[in-house]
Design brief:
The chain is an all-alpha fold. The chain has a single domain, classed as Formate dehydrogenase/DMSO reductase fold (Up-down Bundle). Helices cover about 75% and strands about 0% of the residues. The model has no long low-confidence stretch (mean pLDDT about 90).
Length: about 270
């Protein structure tokens, strides 16, 4: 398995997660500069992931299209959808910049829907069973994984904007924090369901892959959740700088945890 495959999958899912993380904030007018920044950040993520697609395939999945045809096909990993997401991100940035808020939200929604299709493409790279049910489970797990990393990063970036945007309400950071907490809890529940229902998952992940699985749980789930509880207390004191510092650490933890999760998924075909 190529390292570029792990980073390709990770970048695609984080890009889609970043767009979804903007939904709780897009009704707050003072946060529109944050939305514009994050849309450009997502554009960079999809550009990087699209560039990695062909190296990521390597010699695997010979049935998937290669070259330019890969970007004009709905077969395989569907990297062409990333190009559409990038264009929509640029359009959303311009629309919010010209105060066309309703149109900007519609464009972001379209980018999210198309982006989920790209996550489905990443699930195809991990699916070894060939069943539609497994593909759906892998796709849902992929969206949750990208959303966990992206929501923490989104909250951290938002913390910086309190130093730059006069009048940005603390409620924006509280809302981002609650959303992130819900995502982490959903990810924990999802992992529990996979270990319970996926045949052989527990024995494999806590047997041969015990070290990577322990890394994935400690850094990717437990660490961010504990740090988010600390962020909640600092936000109550309206100390956004301290909250942002804690979120920096949480981003680092989530990065290590989700990269491990993608590696395990590509290695075992199990959405962890």
């Amino acid at each position: 398995m190529h390292l570029s495959l792990v980073f390709y999958v990770f970048l695609v899912r984080m890009a889609v997660g970043t767009l979804i993380s903007l939904v709780p904030l897009w009704s707050i007018r003072a946060a529109e500069r944050h939305l514009r920044f994050q849309s450009v950040f997502t554009l960079c993520l999809v550009a990087g992931s699209a560039a990695l697609y062909l190296p990521a395939l390597g010699g695997t999945h010979p049935e998937f299209p290669r070259g330019a045809s890969a970007f004009f096909s709905l077969e395989g990993g569907m990297p062409g959808l990333l190009v559409l997401v990038g264009i929509l991100c640029l359009a959303a940035n311009l629309l919010f910049g010209t105060f066309r808020r309703r149109a900007g939200r519609i464009v972001l929604t379209a980018a999210i829907v198309i982006g989920i299709g790209a996550v489905l493409g990443t699930a195809r790279l991990a699916d070894t069973s060939g069943s539609a049910g497994a593909l759906v489970v892998l796709t849902i797990g992929g969206v949750l994984g990208g959303l966990l990393m992206a929501s923490i990063n989104d909250a951290m970036v938002l913390g910086h904007f309190f130093l730059m945007i006069p009048g940005l309400p603390v409620d924006a950071l509280k809302k981002a924090g609650r959303f992130t907490a819900a995502v982490i809890l959903a990810r924990i529940v999802w992992l529990g369901l996979v270990l319970w229902q996926w045949d052989g998952a527990y024995d494999l992940l806590f047997g041969h892959e015990l070290i990577w699985m322990s890394w994935r749980i400690c850094f990717g789930l437990v660490g961010p959740l504990v740090l988010l509880l600390m962020v909640r207390d600092t936000v109550k004191l309206r100390n956004t700088q301290a909250a942002t510092g804690l979120l920096y650490v949480a981003v680092g933890f989530a990065l290590m945890g989700e990269l491990a999760a993608v590696y395990l998924e590509m290695q075992t075909g199990i959405p962890v």
